Amino acid sequence: MSAQLAIQAQGVQKRYGHISALKGVDLTVTEGQIFGLIGANGAGKSTFIKLLVGAAKADKGSLQVLGFDPRRHKAALRQEIGYMPQAPALYEDLTAAENLRFFGRAHGMKNLNEQVETTLDFVELSQRADDPVNTLSGGMKQRVSLGCALVHQPSLLLLDEPTAGIDLRLRSAFWQHFKKLAAQGTTILVSTHQMDEVVHCNELAIIDEGSILTTDTPQNLLQQGQAEARVWRGGQMEKHALQDYPVDLPKALHAYGLDPQIDRIELEANTLERIVLGLIEKAARLSGGK
Ligand code: ATP
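Above: the input record for the complex with adenosine-5'-triphosphate. Below: its predicted structure, written as tokens.
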């Protein structure tokens, strides 16, 4: 069973002094997926990823990443994973290519030069390969950082808010890169607080105040949303709540036949973003907070 699972977390807890950053997280990520960890600022995303890469230690619970315990087998695990931290950790005085070479060498790669070239091409930085990182734009630095996480061709990528603070065009390019990698068999866990990015994930977990609220596919979450059909007939507006949109839509409209009096029909369905926000707000109400 564990051969299929890239990540397995059970009852993971982490405190920083009086702050309970993770309150018993259970999560499994199957190999080959783009798995989204979605949550607001301070929800616990970075903390969870730091535990996965062995950079911090859980207080309670168990964690398996590619079959390794991240704390006990940190060195072996680092060979297999790529980690892009939230703030790019680059050598600013070195060029983009030198940064990638540095990370590649740390993994003892044999075909280093070739792989650095391929990776720079992949993140569309070949033109700036020989420029020092401190002369690159913020978005380019993010791409160098992604390249450093990728250069040794890891089977699992852990990306902590890789698209934070970058423009829309570059965000879209990043997601194209992630999809390409996933198509080549790389498992990707990506955290984000940008709700519109959830549609790109095969599966997602919504994390809020250190707890996983739900884990599901974007398609299933969409089905939790309500939709409404509004029909204007003879100057009157009639509303129909659709529990199971679009399956319920023909039923709602059936009663009207081809009524010539109908002069307008409007449909409004919840977006995935709104559904995710609704789940977070509902959890806050139930816990009596916010
Ligand atoms: P963001 O989207 O803002 O990066 P996040 O979901 O990644 O947020 P975390 O950085 O994991 O959230 O933080 C979870 C909680 O743990 C927050 O309340 C944060 O203040 C706290 N926290 C994180 N790191 C530390 C630390 N080193 N010392 C003390 N508290 C910390």
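Notes for the reader.
The two ends are 40 Å apart (CA to CA).
The first strand starts at residue 5 and ends at 16.
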